[in-house]
Amino acid sequence: MWNELFLLPFLTGLALAIVLPVLGAYLRLRDEWLAALAYAHIAAAGALLALVSSLPPAVGGIGTALAAGAGKRFFAARLSGGASYALLLVGSWSVAVLLAANHPLAERLGHALFDGQLYFADGPTLALVAIGGTVSLLALRALSRNLLLAHLYPDFFRIRGLRAWPTQLGFDVLAALCLALATMSLGVMGAFALVFIPPWLAFRRSASWRGGLLRALAIGLAAYLGAFGLALWLDQPFGPILALLLVGIGLIIA
Amino acid sequence: MSILLHLEGVVAGWQQPATRPVDLSLAAGEIVGLTGPNGAGKSTVLAAVAGRARVFAGRLTRSAGLRLALQTQEVPPVVGLPLSGRKLLALTGASPVGLPPWLADRLDQRLDRLSGGQRHYLALWAVLDTPADLVLLDEPTNNLDRAGVAHLTRHLRDLAASGRGILIVSHDAGFVAAACDRVVTLEPCDVE
Fold first, then answer.
1. Which ipTM score applies to this complex?
2. Which domain holds residue A36?
3. List of chain A residues whose C-beta atoms are within 8 Å of the C-beta of residue B123
4. Quick check: A148 and B52 CB within 8 A?
5. DSSP code of A74?
6. Distance between CA A150 and CA A162 in Å, rounded?
7. Which positions of chain A have pLDDT values less than 50?
8. pTM
9. Looking at the domain assignment, is residue A236 inside a domain?
10. Lowest CB count within 10 Å: A158, A197, B17, B42, which one?
C-alpha cells in the first residue's frame, strides 16, 4: 500500500532534494537567487497556459521556463541588477492568477502548482525528474570551475579569447529546467525554499566550496525527509510543511 | 628580445577619448611602469591593452598568440562565499609555491576571513602565477604593507627573468622605481 501510494512521490521529491540545494549554491554564487522564484512562477504560468491550450501542462511549464532561461540574456544589457527576474516573476504571477481566475481547470491546477502536488507524482514524473536531475548534476559539475571563475574574475574568459556565453547560457537553461521540474512536484514555494535556504545556511559555516555544497545537500535532504514524514503524519500539503521546516531550521542555525 | 606590445599614438577611452596619445613598447622579460597623475588615464590605457576599453586613435599591436593575464583594481567578490585561498589558486591554475609564509599558512582559510591585504595579495597571486606572456597589473600595491610590496617586487623580477613581460599601472613611486626597468609617464588629458 505504502509502496503504491508514496514510493514514487517520495523518490521524486528525493531526487529534487538532491539537485535543488546544489543548484541553489551556484545561484547564490551569482547573486541570482531571485531567479529561482522567477523560474518557478514562469513554469507555473506556462503549465496553466498549456492547460487552457489543450496541451500537456508539464510541456508548457518546462518549455516556458527554458525559453525564459535562454532568452533572458538577450535583454541582459537593459535589465541588469536582477531586474529581468523581477519582471519575469511579476509578469508570470499575473498571467497565472488571471488564467486561474478565468478558467475552472486552470484554477484547480494553479492551486496544485502553488501548493505543491508531490503526492500525485507518477512514474513518468519520476523518470523526468531522475533524468533531468542527473543531467543537471553532471552539467553543474562540468560548469562549476567556469561559473566560479566568471564570478571571481569576470575578464578571465575575454582576455584569454575564450567564450563565456556557453557557460552563462548553459547555466541559465539548467536553472530553468530544474525549477520547472521542481515546481510541477514541490510547488512554487517548496521549490524556492529548497533552492534558497540550504545554501544560505551552508555558506555561513563552511570553510570550502566543496564543504558548502555537501552541507547544503545535507540540510536539504534532512529537511525533505522530515517534511515528507511530517506532512503524511499530519495529513497536510507537502510544500508548506517543507517550507516551514526549512524556515525553522534556518532560524535555529542562523 | 621579442616585442610583445607596441602602442603608437594610442588614444584610449570608454565612451569617449580619455587619454593623450601614448607611445609605449614592451619586450619579453621587461617590466614597464605606467605612471601619471589621477585622471591621466593610466587604467584606461591598461584596459585598452586588455581589450576592455576602446582605442579611438593610433595603433595598438600585440604579438601573435599573446597570452594575457590581467589584475584590475576590483577585488574578487568573495564575501559570504565558502572559498579558500587554495581553491582560488586552483581555479586560475596558479601554484602556491613561492607565496610568502604569512599567506602560505592561511591558504585553507576562507577568503572573506582574511585581512584586506592578504585577500588582495592572494587574488593578485592567482593572476600573476597563471600561464601568460604579458601580465597587466593595475595598482598592485593597494592594501599591501611593506613586506607585501617587497615580496611582490622580488616576485615580479623573477617572473620577468623567466621571460614574461609586465606592464604596471601604479601611483606608488617607490615600488615603481624598485620594480620597473622603464617608466612611461602619462600627462593629464584635457578631455572632460
1. 0.86
2. 2-188
3. 152
4. no
5. G
6. 11
7. 1
8. 0.88
9. no
10. A158
